Amino acid sequence: MTTETSPPVAKRVPAERNHHGDAVIDEYAWLATKDDPETIAYLTAENDYTETRTAHLAGLRDQLFEETRRRTQETDLSVPTRKDGYWYYTRTVEGQQYGVQCRRAVRDGETEPPVSADGAPLDGEEVLLDGNQLAEGHDFFALGAFDVSPDGRWLAYSTDFSGDERFTLRVKDLTTGELLPDEVPDTFYGTAWSSDASVLFYVTVDDAWRPYRVWRHTIGTPSAQDVVVHQEDDERFWVGVELTRSEKFIVIDVHSKITSEVLVIPAGNPTGLPAVVAPRRQGVEYTVEHHGHRFLILHNDGAEDFALAYTSADTPGDWVPLIEHSPGTRLEAVDAFENHLVVSLRTNGLTGLRVLPIGGGDAYDIDFPEPIYSVGLDANPEYRTGQIRLRYSSLITPDSVYDYDLVTRQMVLRKQKPVLPGPDGRPYDPEEYEQHRDWALADDGTRVPISLVFRKGTPRDGSAPCEIYGYGSYEASMDPWFSVARLSLLDRGVIFAVAHIRGGGELGRRWYEQGKLLAKKNTFTDFVACARHLVKAGWTANDRLVARGASAGGLLMGAVANIAPDAFSGIVAQVPFVDALTSILDPSLPLTVTEWEEWGNPLDDPEVYAYMKSYTPYENVAALDYPAILAVTSLNDTRVLYHEPAKWIARLRATAPQGDYLLKTEMGAGHGGPSGRYDAWREEAFINAWILDRLGRA
């Protein structure tokens, strides 16, 4: 890499932090002042340095972007979903960054979703929202809510133009195309309509940006007259709101990391008081789905991997078992239809769907052909239906949409995401690639699954370069997924691996429990064990292995850089949670208090403080021989604040100055990075070019 320029040097201003008798000097705390011109100047200088240091990759970045663009059908149309008298779908248009939300009336005798040639608009379509028009004049654009009223007349939608996930809520009259004067600023995700569409429920956040209030808005009235329906004062909990598929109840979900409470309001009586389905009990999680005369309860009360029960919808009380707890089979969700229930689950590290017929017939699991795959329900807004829509993909199978008949058990492929010919003009052929499940042995003897994908013929003698991806927090599972951009790596001989480490949910609730709180280090040592295994098994070598992770996976990246810097030739940390102790010590920061049940509370517990201090990346930077590190962040991120990676890179440079560290800050985006699809492709091309350079394949 070029060395014509020197990296920016962050000034060091000693700032002392004291907790549990431990004095800590944070010389880069000043970078947390977002509106300080000196902070912006420093971040801009870092961007300039990163651009200079990667200038030799500009051609490769353009090539990777072009490969993604060429393989993508840019003008496309999703499989329309039926809701009452309309088909709803999204279109994309070549050259445009954002989707166009549309609907078309169902025609007499029409039972199959309509299709169009090459993604063209359907005959007779009605454009509900055009994201490209809404985004005009803005560098960032995201939709929060998109919610059509039960009668099909109103559309509630919300927009964010900065990336901070604070949305302005509006209502559009779909009969006239006009916007109502109703407008509510600073809302969060989640809306729900009353049965007659006269009332809209929505959510707002507190000063720490915790969703804590559910409001009732009467259509046609000023937002100043809106009424708080529920306020959650316990700072560990957050709230959400939705309308059941049956359209009979407004559901208010109240959750902490380990405890739940659900309140309901009849959708036909939106001014009624919320009724508690079951009072919160510490450590008991449950969700509610309405089905006829009953509420379905998915819960972990005496059921580590969850069980399914029901109670009366009129007078909720005792929970009557429907599916008993089965250790190792994690029940994740239940969806109710008039004559069937569909349970989303995972077992043996794979996702699955179980169907329970109502009124006769045995429960059964839907079978899928590949050894490694991901499956889940797609949008299924209709309650009275004998057919469900599901999504399926694998590391080699593009995203596929199926309709499944719950009675005949026939599955019809409606659409598989097109993968157009690459630069060589050859069409994509999954038979040219291979996916594999391997297992690493962790330090404590636990077997940790690894999913791999590579081109057939890739050598198994340690000479192949490899990217290993990990997350390992919040019980989030990194189930196999297909990526068009990843093909550019595979076709250059790179192996892609996913380490399914503890802290995630791939192997059930216990897998998660063994990677949180005072067992969090298992997440990091599992990942290192997976990296070591890939080398030992001949998949790759230490000097040909790049690690990548984002958000809590960025914490993982920082931790493994400290404990096993020799295991990797490069590390990509996106929006990385690398200053975890400082953030978790500050209850005023967004989401901190709600995180204490995931990481522990270092303010009140000296053991938690000492444990977190022993692994949090920023606290443990040392004079080590670190691999090259690329940190990518966003200025308006409200989940992991930009200053965490900025401080981390500054401390790395000061402590281990021989290393190669780059910081790239998106100055107008949030946690998910750039919002437009072309901008997102360019960001991915930037990262993949850096990875290929580290792997000697640039």
From TrEMBL:
UniProtKB keywords: Hydrolase, Protease, Serine protease
Q: Where is the Peptidase S9A N-terminal domain?
A: 7-416
Note the Pfam families from the entry: Peptidase_S9 (PF00326), Peptidase_S9_N (PF02897)
Ranges where the Peptidase S9 prolyl oligopeptidase catalytic domain occurs: 481-696
Record's InterPro entries?
A: AB_hydrolase_fold, Pept_S9A_N, Peptidase_S9_cat, Peptidase_S9A, Serine_Peptidase_S9A
Q: Source organism's superkingdom?
A: Bacteria
Q: Which family does it belong to?
A: Belongs to the peptidase S9A family.
Put simply, this protein is called S9 family peptidase
